[in-house]
Amino acid sequence: MEKKAHHANPASEKIVEWGEANQIETCFDRAQKMKPCPIGETGACCKICHMGPCRLVGKDAEATAKGVCGASVATVAARNFARMIAAGTACHGDHGRDMAFTLLAVAEGHAKDFKITDVRKLYRIAGILDIEFEGRPVNDVARDVATKLIEDFGRQRGEMNFIKRAPQKTQERWRKWDIVPRGLDREVAETLDRTTMGMDADPDSILMHGLRTAISNGWGGSMISTEVTDVLFGTPQPVKAEASLGIFKEDEVNIVIHGHEPMLAEILVEVVNDPEMIAYAKSKGAKGINLGGMCCTANEVMMRHGIPSAGGLTNQELSIMTGLVELMVVDVQCIMPALAGLAKKFHTKFITTSKKVKIPGAQHIQFEEDRAKEIAKEITKLAIDNYSNRKKGGSHVTDKYPLIAGFSHEYIEYMQGGRYRGSFRPLNDAIMAGRVRGVVGLVGCDNPRVPATGLHKYLAVELIKNDVLIVSSGCSSVACGSVGYLTPEMAMEYAGPGLREVCEAIGIPPILHLGSCVDNTRILTIAAAMAAEGGLSDEIGGMPAVGIAPEWMSEKATAIACYFAASGVPVIMGGESPVSASKEVTRIMTEVWFERFRGAVHFEPDPEKILAMTLDYIDKARAALKLKKYEPGKFGTEKVLMDMAARREIEKAGRPHIGL
Ligand code: BF8
């Protein structure tokens, strides 16, 4: 029998196999040994009080099983799922909060190593927040923006600031169903409150508050993160980079920055390029310093500086197993505790930097934003000093692929007409004419329970063959980039005729890298702009658009799925359903949510079925909008897309700034 691959990326699979041969355990081995608990997996285990844990199983459990308190399967499954949403929202929310406080520190002069890079974007955000900016010092505006955004976390009454960025009709649906979030902290706390023993037992009511909590993430915490990060470090524009485990260099000091937040990563980019540091590395026998990223921190610095990515979630252990990594430094989120023990088997130093993330066996160097450069230098020196300790061994691979990253909302608008005529008109027209069948957000983690990254690869190719434009983020975009899918050439090779024509005309890949997981909010603002542009749906719901997270593993992914569903996007998550114990909960999250918001959250492990469901949603949305029926290679009339030459013609005056 043919052996099933652990990883769908050949370079990663090679290292996993090397690990097996050398008795080095990875998440793939642990996934084999640790089968999911069959009760917890379906959402039927209640452990919120000490009369239990109660296992709500047995014949016809949905109708008959009860916990000691009398809670039904539907109540328990809904509570469990709502708690996942709250945890994911807390996590991405804290990321946004940290960014907002960094902006405040910069504005008040407490974080001297950082500065405001995109003043135009700061003004744009100030405008949205009704903060006066004309004629005022930049730092004063930044302080007011940061202060107003920080209020979004602790607000007790009213509405979060960015709610008004959603299309009017989408907002109306939220108001009608009373799910406009007040403040992120309040919604998270209320989810925990409602789902504790003796509280809300109505699955619909519990899940509606789950949606409110998720919106506080998508149109709140995560959106704050995206916008403030652009203000501080620059709004992304397309940039060339590379990805996969072959990014490490044999003759240089290799440092991996892993996690989610960009502060430490940004300052490391500066420090590893400091001539003094490079000279120090040379004095230790290395030719230079090579910084690589991992998971979503990688996406942050890739799309702003072209820093290469070593991969997503399942590559974190494998990167150390190359034997080439002098130091891995982590900030927050998605960091496997196994790294500390694994690093000790090699010469790699493993450094934690956040008060919120301490790992037994790791060295802790506390990151403080008011001493950012000093700390980054300390970490870089540790890596350089460790270069001479590199031993023979490890599984070196050379595979790496070029890619283009950094498609922000602002750039996508610009590429469709230039600074002065930028809009979403050409994309809407291409969809209306049937050149582009629809748009899919292919997002989320990679997962050792399937051949890791394999579902992303399969869906990416099949969707673009079907003329579906993909916007991608998080580990999904790295999965695509690590096999060469984030290039314009990908369109020539695989895209259907309509999508290929669009990609050729604009000079873009058929899969657009939008950034990290918090940057899924770029998809929300793009969808809102498409609705405002006209010709398609006048709200996000009803667009020929679907979200897919085929290999999700994190609670954060449930929060993301739910804010998309509440915004009007049907979402299909891979893997077994965490609410499958209850048909009622499954019905609420699909049929009821679709009726109320035109979005839904499905769980479907079979990638072929995910593809079929996606195309079905897209085609039904096209039919409901009375758009031309999609037929490959047969297009309706539409406006001519602007090519590069036409755009250059308009912008002879010079390179535009896309921050506005
Ligand atoms: O932040 S890094 S494993 S959780 S997809 Fe998933 Fe990847 Fe984590 Fe989202 Ni991004």
**Quaternary organization:** single chain
Distance between the termini: 58 Å
Using DSSP, what is the number of strands?
Answer: 15
The main sheet orders its strands as 12-11-10-13-14-15
Overall average residue pLDDT: 94
Largest sheet: 6 strands, parallel
Helix/sheet category = alpha/beta
Count of domain modules: 4
| Helix-residue proportion | 40-55%
What form results from the Cα inertia axes?
globular
Rg computed from alpha carbons, rounded to a whole number of angstroms: 24 Å
Strand content: 5-15%
Low-confidence stretches: 653-660
Named at the architecture level, the CATH assignment of the largest domain is 3-Layer(aba) Sandwich
Hetero groups in this structure are: FE(4)-NI(1)-S(5) CLUSTER with Oxygen
User: Which fold name corresponds to the CATH topology of the largest domain?
Assistant: Rossmann fold
Q: What's the CATH class label of the largest domain?
A: Alpha Beta
**In DSSP terms, counting alpha (H) and pi (I) runs of 4 or more, how many helices?**
27
What does this structure look like?
The protein is an alpha/beta fold. It has four domains: 10-64, no CATH class; 73-233, Substrate Binding Domain Of Dnak, Chain:A, Domain 2 (Up-down Bundle), CATH 1.20.1270; 245-389, Rossmann fold, CATH 3.40.50; 421-634, Rossmann fold (3-Layer(aba) Sandwich). Helix content is 48%, strand content 10%. It has 27 helices and 15 strands. Helix 25 (583-597) links the parallel strand 14 (570-573) and strand 15. 60% of the residues are buried. Bound molecules: FE(4)-NI(1)-S(5) CLUSTER with Oxygen (BF8). FE(4)-NI(1)-S(5) CLUSTER with Oxygen binds next to helix 12 and helix 20. The site of FE(4)-NI(1)-S(5) CLUSTER with Oxygen has 14 residues, from helix 12 and helix 20.
